[in-house]
Automatic annotation (TrEMBL):
Taxonomic source organism: Anaerofilum hominis
Keywords, sorted A to Z: NAD, Oxidoreductase
Family statement drawn from the similarity comment of this UniProt entry: Belongs to the D-isomer specific 2-hydroxyacid dehydrogenase family.
Listed GO MF terms: NAD binding; oxidoreductase activity, acting on the CH-OH group of donors, NAD or NADP as acceptor
Protein name stated in the entry: Hydroxyacid dehydrogenase
Length: 317
């Protein structure tokens, strides 16, 4: 099999070589491209003879997949696969595997980094110290005792709930299906409209689907308390960011922590959230820790090995 890695995995070259060694020993061909060139014409040239492609978060256009007649598997070093042409993959019988679970801890921890930064006004505190200021006007809020709303109780949502419980929060959630693990944590499931109205913090943990695209729209944002925070470490299109920016500018909600956008960063300078007060923006880093990158690299290679052994796992249907 001809196996091609189209982008770096944020681990050392030595680690990639170590993980690829068993594939090479089994007489498979392995080529890694880590120069960050994702021009579609370049991707086609690099991928056209591949039986197996390995990618992370770089968009893989339909034209690239269509130009790979031998392609049998795309091993994705990521949780979401909305950057792949899934309909075309299904049509051509190309299997797609992902690395669900590799970044549960990393994402959940960033949620609370954003929440605490907003509640305790850490960016403003930093600016005050660097400009000769004091604590005047920088009184913050405690997280303990607040109502924490989780939209989507998958693995990351549940880990976020566990951490929120440790902070002493009251837990509410909205999800397509109820999970016993969630109810064991004391989570109350509510309709989304009610959750948006009751929560002091709303944290999003859903994939992008036809049903979740702009799930948090102007109407939902309007239901939030003026003291509430919105945290999005899930997918950018889940939120109407223009409506969110308007709510922040008009003081209808207190703040937002946003790690994901309609596009992969860099975002344009005129993006509505760039000028929105009370917004902390991070460039899609929730998953990106040294620990999670090591786990992810191992999983994406393991998915290839399992496929080659005739036992594919972590498939996206």
């Amino acid at each position: 099999m001809n196996i091609v890695l189209l982008e770096g995995l944020a681990v050392s070259d030595a680690k990639v070589a170590e993980l690829a060694a068993p594939l090479i020993a089994a007489e498979h061909s392995f080529t890694a491209y880590t120069d960050g060139n994702y021009d579609p014409a370049v991707l086609i040239e690099r991928a056209k003879e591949a039986d197996i492609l390995m990618v992370a978060s770089t968009p893989l256009p339909a034209g690239v997949v269509a130009a790979c007649p031998r392609l049998k598997l795309i091993s994705v070093a990521f949780t979401g696969v909305d950057h792949l042409p899934m309909d075309l993959c299904r049509e051509r019988g190309i299997l797609v595997s992902n690395c669900a679970g590799y970044s549960n801890e990393s994402v959940a921890e960033l949620v609370f980094g954003l929440v605490i930064s907003l509640l305790r006004r850490i960016p403003a505190c930093n600016d005050a110290c660097r400009s000769g200021g004091t604590k005047a006007g920088l009184v913050g809020f405690e997280l303990a005792g607040k109502t924490f709303g989780i939209v989507g109780t998958g693995a990351i949502g549940l880990r976020t709930a566990q951490l929120a419980k440790a902070f002493g929060c009251n837990l509410i959630a909205y999800s397509r299906s109820r999970r016993p693990e969630a109810e064991a944590l004391g989570i109350r499931y509510l309709p989304l409209e009610q959750l948006m109205a009751e929560a002091d913090v709303v944290s999003l943990h859903v994939p992008v689907t036809a049903e979740t695209r702009q799930l948090i729209n102007a109407e939902m944002i309007a239901r939030m308390k003026p003291t509430a925070l919105l945290i999005n470490t899930a997918r950018g299109p889940v939120v109407d960011n223009a409506a969110l920016a308007d709510a922040l500018k008009e003081g209808r909600i207190a703040g937002a922590g946003i790690d994901v956008f309609e596009m992969e960063p860099p975002i344009p300078e005129d993006h509505p959230l760039c000028s929105a007060p009370g917004a902390i923006l991070t460039p899609h880093v929730a998953f990106a820790t040294a620990e999670s990158m090591e786990v992810r690299a191992g999983m994406v290679f393991e998915n290839v090995s399992l496929y080659l052994e005739g036992n594919p796992r972590n498939l996206i249907r």
